[in-house]
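Fill in residues.
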């Protein structure tokens, strides 16, 4: 059996999480890591857990010569330059089979399209990492409901949320580097999940045609003086000058091109969700049937009283973005698997070994970027955007949201 050798670019939060997932994935090993912050620790973890004997490399080119597939886990603002270097390395003879990129594929439609162009120009298989479409909780619920769906008709409404109290790294908070606020960061997950749930069985993941989008972006918590100061002190970002949205909600209308049926996906994301920690919540309604997933309801709970609370070293080992270390707390027994990180990695590994694109390719990632940017445009204009209008599509090709340009005050303070 062949093994796919992976090279990680980026060794921060998500790279560490995916290394945990890799312990549950077959036919792959970690052989190369780009030498930036966290690389040594990640290499040590890989060795300790027998994921491979990764070597650290100072250049993207060298790294590309020591793996079969590169995984881009670096910040959003570094994507394109890294993809350009990968394409150059392939032209210079690096024997790469494929490239994987974490969400979002691009901060704008133009960036995402360029990512597709570079990967295809280098003849690479692609995988867009959108873990939530690989969540067994969602896909098992869907497969249980297929018989009901066949008799009663398709889902007509899907709602998807991802919420927590705010990101861990400075660059996420800076809209000019990240590409916006929580819509750019997590709206991409929820928009994609809605479409996935609504897609009829056996149809491609872009089968449903987006026809309209409405959206509201707002700054509910982190624009208040006390919290603005906290952001300035902790991350050095000034939300009086360059604010980003910490709450977004919107609705996308999709049309089934075969039946003409209109269905709706509602997405909600926040960085001001002050509960136990990260919550993924999805539900969907069809005629006579429904499904629901709530990541904060775990079969495992712990209780830490006030007296014992001082002894808790790291609440985040129990739950991502945990905000509390006392009281009744949720614990996930296998968070990396629950969020879909194992299944998305296995899918990419199996696909690349078979010489194919993964279930979600870069073109799919670019389509998600298009919808996220359409949501920003709808919020900015304060209208329901007609996604069938060729002029709107054209405008989106060169669109950069005001928030991502550092002009969020025009949108969020008015
Ligand atoms: N799917 C998910 O649930 C999920 C969760 C978190 C992050 N992400 C995505 O993963 C990516 C990384 O996020 P993170 O939370 O790990 O960030 P992070 O800040 O924790 O880590 C970033 C890593 O990239 C490295 N890096 C910085 N600049 C670089 C450059 N120019 N070239 C190469 N490497 C560079 C850093 O040294 C660090 O190792 C982001 O695109 C983010 O959107 C996805």
């Amino acid at each position: 059996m062949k093994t796919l050798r992976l090279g990680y670019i980026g060794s921060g939060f998500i790279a560490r999480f995916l290394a945990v997932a890799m312990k549950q994935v077959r036919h792959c090993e970690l052989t190369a890591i780009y030498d930036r912050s966290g690389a040594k620790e990640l290499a040590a973890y890989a060795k300790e857990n027998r994921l491979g004997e990764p070597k650290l490399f100072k250049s993207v080119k060298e790294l590309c010569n020591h793996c079969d597939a590169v995984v881009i886990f670096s910040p959003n603002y570094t994507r394109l330059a890294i993809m350009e270097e990968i394409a150059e390395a392939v032209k210079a003879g690096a024997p790469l089979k494929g490239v994987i990129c974490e969400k979002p594929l691009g901060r704008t439609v133009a960036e995402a399209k360029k990512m597709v162009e570079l990967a295809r120009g280098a003849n690479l298989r692609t995988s867009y990492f959108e873990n939530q479409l690989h969540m067994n909780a969602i896909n098992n619920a869907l497969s249980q409901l297929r018989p009901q769906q066949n008799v009663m008709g398709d889902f007509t409404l899907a709602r998807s949320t991802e919420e927590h109290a705010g990101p861990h790294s400075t660059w996420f908070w800076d809209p000019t580097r990240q590409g916006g606020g929580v819509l750019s960061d997590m709206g991409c997950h929820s928009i994609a999940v809605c479409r996935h749930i609504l897609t009829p069985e056996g149809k491609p993941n872009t089968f449903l045609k987006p026809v309209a989008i409405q959206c509201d972006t707002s700054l509910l918590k982190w624009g208040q003086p006390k919290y603005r100061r906290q952001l300035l002190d902790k991350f050095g970002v000034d939300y009086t000058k360059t604010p980003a949205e910490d709450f977004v909600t919107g609705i996308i209308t999709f049309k089934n091109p075969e039946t003409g049926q209109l269905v709706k996906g509602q997405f909600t994301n926040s960085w001001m969700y002050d509960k136990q920690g990260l919550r993924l919540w999805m539900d969907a309604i069809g005629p006579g049937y429904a499904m629901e997933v709530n990541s904060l309801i775990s079969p495992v709970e712990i209780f830490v009283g006030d007296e014992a609370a001082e002894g808790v070293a790291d609440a985040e080992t129990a739950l991502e973005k945990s905000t509390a270390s006392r009281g009744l707390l949720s614990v996930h027994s296998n968070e990396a698997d629950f969020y879909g990180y194992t299944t998305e990695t296995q899918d990419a590994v199996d696909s690349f070994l078979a010489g194919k694109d993964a279930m979600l390719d870069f073109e799919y990632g670019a389509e998600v970027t298009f919808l996220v940017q359409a949501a920003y445009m709808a919020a900015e204009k304060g209208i329901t955007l007609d996604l069938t209008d060729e002029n709107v599509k054209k405008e989106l090709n060169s669109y950069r949201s005001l928030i991502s340009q550092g002009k969020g005050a025009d949108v969020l303070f008015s």
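The two ends are 60 Å apart (CA to CA).
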